[in-house]
Design goal:
58 residues, alpha+beta, 2 helices, 28% helix, elongated
């Protein structure tokens, strides 16, 4: 599993996090337009059980 860290351009207090289901691309843009300080894609727990089963087979 790889993890990428991006150093923030400006150091600031992280007040809010927003988890976005990785199985819902329509929510990506909503997340980007939110005021959350930190956004991450949840690629496992926030997906439907059917989708999760399909991904486990890959």
């Amino acid at each position: 599993m790889s993890h990428q860290y991006y150093k923030p351009a400006k150091s600031r207090l992280q007040r809010s996090e927003l988890a976005v289901p990785g199985s819902s691309p329509k929510m990506f843009e909503k997340a980007l337009n939110s005021n959350a300080d930190y956004i991450f894609l949840d690629l496992e727990d926030a997906v439907s059980p059917k989708t999760h089963q399909l991904w486990e087979k890959l």
